[in-house]
Amino acid sequence: MSSNKKYWKSVEELNENSSIVEALKQNEFVEEIPTDEFLGDKETLESSSTTRRDFLKYVGFSTAAASLAACEGPVIKSIPYVVQPTEIIPGVANYYATTIANGYDFASVLVKTREGRPIKIENNTMAPSNGSANARVNASVLGLYDSLRVQGPMQGENAISWTELDNAMMQKLEAVKGSGKDIVLLTQTFASPSTSKLISEFTEKYGNVRHVVYDAVSESAALDAYQAKYGERALANYDFSKAMTIVSVGADFLGDWQGGGFDSGYAKNKIPTHGKMSRHIQIESNMSLSGANADKRIPLTPSLQKIALAKLYSYVVGGSVSGTLPEATDIAIRQAASQLKKAGRNGVVVTGLQDVDAQTVVLEINEALNSRAFDTTSPIQTRQGNDKAVNALVADMKAGKVGALIMSGVNPLYTLPNASDFAEGLNNENLVSVCFSMKADETASASTYVAAAPHYLESWGDVEMKKGQFALMQPTIRPLFDTRQFQDSLLKWTENSESFHDYIKKTWKSSIVSGGSFNQALHDGVFVAGSSIGGANGASSNTVHSTSTELNDKKDRTWVGGVIHDAAVGVGIKEEDKDTYSSTTSSTTTSNTGSVAGISAKSGGDAARALAASAKTSDLELTLYSKTGMGDGQQANNPWLQEFPDPITRTTWDNYLTMSAKDAEKFGVKNWHVATGGLNSSLVELTVNGITEVVPVIIQPGQAVGSLGMSFGFGRKNGLKEEMQTGKNAFPFYQDFNTVQNDVSVKVVPGEHEFACVQLHNTLMGRGDIIKETTLEVFNTKDKKYWNAVPVVSFNHEEIPVTSKDANLWEEFDRSIGHHFNLSIDLNACTGCGSCVIACHAENNVPVVGKEEIRRSRDMHWLRIDRYYSSETTFAGDNEKKDNISGLSSSLSEFGELEHAADNPQVAFQPVMCQHCNHAPCETVCPVAATSHGRQGQNHMAYNRCVGTRYCANNCPYKVRRFNWFLYNGNDEFDYHMNDDLGRMVLNPDVVVRSRGVMEKCSMCIQKTQKTILDAKRDGRVIKDGEFQTACSAACSSGAMVFGDINDKESKVAELLEDNRMYHLLESVGTKPNVQYHTKVRNTTEA
Amino acid sequence: MKKPYQSLEVNSTNNMKQVIHRKLSATILRLSLIILLTFSMALSAQEGDPAKGKSLFNANCAACHKLDKKMTGPALRNVEQRLSDDEGLDRAWLSAWIRNSSGVIKSGDAYADKIYKEYGGAAMTAFPQLSDDDINNILAYTAEEAKAPPAGATAQVGQTPASGSGDGVSNKLILGALAVLFGLLALALVLVTKTLRRFADAKGVDVAIKDKSVPLWKAFAQNQFLVLVTAIFFLLASGYFVYGFFMQVGVDQGYQPVQPIHFSHKIHAGDNGIDCKYCHSSARVSKTSGIPSLNVCMNCHKSVYEYTGETSAEYTKEFYDGEIQKLYAAAGWSDADQKYSGDPQPVKWIRIHNLPDFAYFNHSQHVTVAGLECQTCHGPVEEMEIMYQHAPLTMGWCINCHRETNVKVKDNAYYTKIHEELSKKYGVEQLTAAQMGGLECGKCHY
After folding, report:
1. What is the DSSP annotation of B61-74?
2. Chain B nearest CA to A812, separation (Å)
3. Does B38 touch chain A (CB under 8 A)?
4. Which of residues 1020-1049 of A touch B (CB under 8 A)?
5. ipTM surpasses 0.90
6. B172 lies in a domain?
7. Using CB atoms, which residue from A77, A934, A993 is nearest to B350?
8. B135 and B83 fall within a common domain
């Protein structure tokens, strides 16, 4: 039977008159293939003496010759030193204590150097405060090897010598001195005693010198308020480890609020001990890290925040204020107030509102509470910018009153809201400007001279982070380029032949260490006035204690079935049971220079009333913030930070407008996923005070309705690789240095934006076994089975826990001998700050893949921090909803609902890396046995054995394996640090750089554990607890990550394994991971 | 790739001749010594023993002084004579100077001050422990006449190869004679058959002509079994060679590159017995053994400015001295001025032992913890005139050793517990590195 079927090649064939169909009948292609074009010039092709056969012969022979030659190994040269420095042993790392002080980030750090080059930043545990490196500080080492650094002094585009610059500047300075115009030093906050002294010497020499301190993200209002009250331009210090009730009004104190560095203290009280933990209430408009960690979060627009703060004052301290709040909010504020009052000295209030009144109110409340966490004896010095002085400078520059402008550590043309005014002043032909900068950034390229500045790892310096707490900065490598730091130049220009190193030494010997050892201080990196921090013997005296608190339990609590009954926040506990804190404070004072006149202290009541009155509500309010990854944008050329996923939105390589779901609906703004797995969004035109920018939007759960958020630090253009020129600049919206802007409108414009977001599924869908969460009340009163149940399986028709021997498919391997490593992650202490992510990058040579690849879900992070939102108001609500689903119709709709995050969701962070399963699913499916298990519990990955089948990644329930789709270290498409010789300097020589086509994943820092073991073997000693560290656990300052050997029964991690809160991720799968998680406990107890 | 050593005969004849020569010169020396001694006896009543003096000199003075060459300090040949002739200073002054030179300088002595300044203001170490006898002995040693340079030795060496080449000729002769013999035999055979055939022709005997059978190769081609067997054989054989070829790709056993400076491990580690870890000090504490920096070389080579050991035709004294000069040039050392004056240039050595990047190897683990001899992996370095890679450095080679070698647990507190437990588990006295976990992938690959 013959078939009469007609087969259609395309719809076009339906059209009888189609020329295409006609053409295709005759030819293979519709159009002539332009062969001539790619064969080139026909004539030369024909006249060539090489025939096709000859050509093929040549190709054949050369290929054969090349492959034969490839069998010969290359000749590798080894070049030893001529004179080897005694402290350098090739192959052994040296550590130096130094300090980062770039005007935005201030931290005491240890720098790991190998063969003389810095390769990693670590925490300086000797530092009394600011001893922990955040993500940006961890990443800062890469900035040293930035190929776009300015390599020498320049006049405009031309390279000049330092002598030429010195001569020109000194001539000009002398000329300005006579002319009556001003010489202005516009600098970052140095907080450096030596630099202050040097600047005063410079002022003495030239007379009419003005020093303007400028912080890109200003804390001026807080400084003004503090100065008015305490007569000192500084910021109050907060020690959250002493606070049991924390109320924050718009202050992201786990982020960059007032210089940051508060998270380790905060995390201490987040871990429930003796049934108690702190309670944190966050009132904010954007979803911030602090809001995500809060026990209770109240989304509120900035204007209402002002009223709320004023009300809080009146409820706590007294007096009445005008203004109304929504009823529910008012109740919440009352509850917070009563909780604060009950907490008494254990309570603390902070605010991030850039308003002198708001800051005054907070100071007053804390005074009234007599808060332990509130510290005015060692105030923070790391923000000193003065908005008024900056504004005055811009005006003076425009008026031509400034003759010479010396800038260091600032980029006003990028960060100033009125950058065009500054540019106008800078272009004044009578003004000579010199900009100390590492990059040819916006300001540097517009200045008369660019003075190439060294990286902080190449510089000398000193910092007084908090009053009486000093830190030293020392070079860890010789300057890579012809650079000279600002202070050395000032010394030159004051005709002082000293080096800044000697200058610091002199200053310290005369007024800081006072008889103590400068070398010891340099070794430690830190020095606390009136004390000597012990070196080897670890003895530290009184002042160190001033920052550490000891919690002394007066008596042991009554344990009933492992449950403590007098629970909660230090509230309702009998006086004799209350914990006492012993703390000593030092009263060292140093003279403080620079005071702004004309600020008089307002009384708390007046300030609260003024604050409430100043609250103007508008339809839309914009809150500008800084991202965990990018900060103020000075490290924008750092690929690690660009690729660092924002802890909240999990988006990389971008900034955006955050908007609540309600507003998004109102404006018609959408976020949607496309087939490649990427996230797209609509574009909106954002207008703030007449300034317009088209920006993408991310619909942010928890964003207060009527508020918008946008981060600083993006949209830079100058001195950046093209790939790094991401996002939009938010600084033009930063009018009057106020992070809150009222005159805001939004309009959807055509077009869409492609994001590179690493987490598209935002909710937990009621899968309570991934992140276990409970409340303090339940934790204290109920049995472990209730809030941290081990999953059960059916065995012989009986339910048995998956951890039992009978539920095991595999033969158990005896791991009780030798080391057995475990990593413990406490979800309560983890703030999601992400320093572990960057530390892991630096330690393990993890490549940067770029925005396009991230969008394709090909990110290479060995360690990710998953962020989950609840769909109901709480995660417990999600679980309940899921459990109650029955039947098809209900499951379809309700699972669909569970995909959407709540308007004000609970948030949880979960760092996930390779779980190093004892029964690893990846190991059984590898066809070439490239991944195998070690006795010490680590899941090994032999890269050179891997053939790239990716079976392991498919079989991994945790999705932690990463595949090298490209040769990221040798492919011009990926022009990041691994592709230039300078950037490769940062690579860790102990970890292999992976090639294309192999799988990689977290190794549990086997290079570090092996090194610890080897060191112990060499010394012939037993390893103590705490010696084993991974990059992430060492970087974790909140104590969330603890690493160690569980076969050492005395170790912390072995103790944590037995903890009630401990569970394993996806325990029901039976993989027996070596990573422990600890149930998150939220303190929801209302007072 | 290895450089062939010179033939044994050459060396031995050479040595013999040198020995004879040495004996001769020694007798002459001894004679002259006796004469000298009698003279000096007459000259001075305080006599020393030059042999004792020599050992004292080497122990105390040789770091800064040579007999015939200015070094950190002046040349000391006939120092006593010179001082008394030129400066009128006696042995008492000299003793005072040796025991406490700075004291003499402080006392305002003109000549002491002059010497002090001439040598850059570096005071001589004081030797208060030297007795008068010791000083006498040392001075007796310095008063010895210089040895005459061994003349004529090189000329004799030049003649030696002639005798050796004679053997080669005789071999060829025998072979040639044998060839001729066989040729003659073959010729004889041909002639015999020819003659026989002629006889047959003459007698009319019919020599049966053989059937033209199938040629051998055709028969072979027709025999399918044989073809199959041969094909299999050839396939296997070529497989064997291809496998062998691929297995040696990237294995550089015997790699012996020419280095920018001819550094002889034989002289340093062998003849002079310098400990490997004196130069490769970081092998004790680091993953790399470290190529010594030039300042380590100069520790000794400040005073070792010439080669005085055995020489051969290829490696003459001039050759070695030239290499020392290369070192001086690289370190920027001026031997004449005894100071660093030149522009130092790091030496670009060619690395011999190259492990691939994906393998982590730590020297200190093997050298310090396991207490292995360097020779275990690097071979007889002390015999290597030119350094070469002794071991294949393949993974199989590593693993074999880990399987066979016991962990050195003695006096190492780290191992106490784990060794006790593990050895009980495996039921062995002594654990091998493999049993300790030395075969796990992740121990070397990360």
Report:
1. ITTT--SSS-SSS-
2. 15
3. no
4. 1020-1023
5. no
6. no
7. A77
8. yes
